[in-house]
Amino acid sequence: MTAIHNELLERVRHSLADEGAEPTPARVAAAVRAEGRLLGHDDVLELVDTLRRDAFGAGPLDALLREPEVTDIVVNRPDAVYIDRGDGLERTAVSFSDERDVRRLAQRLAAAGGRRLDDASPFVDVRLHDGTRFHAVLSPIAHPGTVLSLRVPARRAFTLEMLQVCGTLTPVAAGLLRDLVDARLAFLVSGGTGSGKTTLLATLLSLIGGRERLVLVEDVAELRPEHDHVVGLEARPPNVEGAGTITVRDLVRQALRMRPDRLVVGEVRGAEVVDLLAALNTGHEGGCGTLHANSAGDVPARLEALGVAAGLGRQAVHSQLASAVQVVVHVVRPQRGPRFVSEIAILRVRADGLVGCQPAVRFHPDGTAATGPGADRLKHLLRGADEQLSGS
Q1: The domain that contains 101 carries what CATH number?
Q2: 107 & 207 share domain
Q3: For a designed S-S bond to 296, which of 126, 201, 232, 345 qualifies (C-beta 3.0 to 4.6 A apart)?
Q4: One domain, residues 83 and 194
Q5: pLDDT by residue (tens digit) across 141-198?
Q6: 102 and 17 in one domain?
Q7: Any residues with CB less than 8 A from the CB of 205 and at least 6 apart, and which?
Q8: Are 45 and 82 in a shared domain?
């Protein structure tokens, strides 16, 4: 704020809090007069807007959340607020008054999501009412101050054509991904944090025919495909007493009883990999999900690590994986430029009995593509599905 001193703002805030009053223009003006100050009409309205954002919205971050291209907001310090519009982080002119303001906003947003955030529980990850994924770590665990991260959900489902326009897909990649969905092949979208895995998966789910039933299982609900028949299941963290947990693994088991035509796990990150692999081996074609991985080639090792941690032996993981997942679509986020699909690869059993990853097509930032050793196998998988569909 420029016209209103922070000290006055703080006094008015405490005055209204003591009265339990909503910050209406009349009440704010009265509180200002009680402090021995006189403000013009515009300054009073500015103060009202600030107090309302503090009480009901995301405070100084509200304007950033309304920007249509913003995908992420991070707060490193009261005077260091960054946004990502899809082309890397950029610093904004937005700032908080001090560390207390950042902490207060973090605790209020956590409470709005039904979670506790204090010195005893100094970090939180929660979905807000508008779908924004909110994460916070309080000081002094985080330093130099409380750190906030907000992942803004896609305001609309992208089409393949839209992803081509923004540089995520080439026409060749778009065609292959459409064929992949039509062929009902099981696939994973891999990539790093913020690479666009969820956006791409939602786009591909939107291509599925309306007669199919999609059951989505997510730790935090983020997928929003444009589809006529979607059922979503969302995990639940423990409450303040430590009870009431519902895990993704619990939900995968429930989803199998809900007659899914496509079983979708928004992010494979834990023991649910066991149930997902089992499901994809028992007639649930076309299942899919996302997975954090540095490259498509790292996907078998990531799944092995998750499966072994959940109690499966190494050979058992690879045995299940060999027939459960057929294709990996890898997405990257370069330091500059748009996120893009860099590779489509296939999973194959190696001579040692373990599953490895073979590149089928690699895509470069300049739009060119190169085929790899898995190209023929990918064509065979797509062609075989076409032949089954045509009855030949």
Answers
A1: 3.30.450.370
A2: no
A3: 345
A4: no
A5: 999 999 999 998 877 778 999 999 989 999 999 999 999 999 999 999 999 988 999 9
A6: no
A7: 214, 223, 225, 227, 230, 262, 264, 288
A8: no
Helices (H) and strands (E) in the chain, counts: 13, 15
Angstrom distance (rounded) from CA 391 to CA 373:
29
Could you list the residue range(s) of the whole structural domain that residue 94 is in?
59-153
pLDDT of residue 324: 94
Give the pair of three-digit tokens for residue 390: 């045509």
Place of tokens 């997902």: 276
Q: Dihedral angle at the C-alpha atoms of 74, 78, 79, 84, nearest 10 degrees?
A: 10
| Residue at which a domain ends, from 98, 123, 153 | 153
Same domain, 98 and 229: no
104 shares its domain with 188: no
Long-range contacts at 55-61 (CB < 8 A, ≥ 24 apart): 55/22, 55/23, 58/105, 58/109, 58/150, 59/96, 59/101, 59/105, 60/94, 60/95, 60/96, 60/101, 61/94, 61/105, 61/148, 61/150
Place of tokens 């082309």: 87
Same domain, 249 and 370: yes
Residue that is last in its domain, among 99, 120, 153: 153
Q: Name the one residue in this structure whose structure tokens are 């062929």.
A: 183
**How many Å apart are CA 129 and CA 98, to the nearest integer?**
26
- As given in the structure block, the two tokens for residue 169 are 């897909």
> What are the φ/ψ torsions at residue 158 (nearest 5 degrees)?
-80, 150
For the chain, the domain total comes to: 3
Which pTM value belongs to this model?
A: 0.78
Q: Quick check: 168 and 341 in contact, CB under 8 A? A: yes
The CATH number covering residue 304 comes to 3.40.50.300
User: What average pLDDT values come out for the chain (392 residues) when binned by 10 residues?
Assistant: 55 59 68 68 66 65 87 94 88 92 91 86 86 92 94 82 93 95 96 91 95 93 91 85 86 93 93 90 88 96 95 94 95 88 96 95 93 95 60 40
Note whether 110 and 187 are same-domain residues: no
Q: Which pLDDT belongs to residue 391?
A: 44
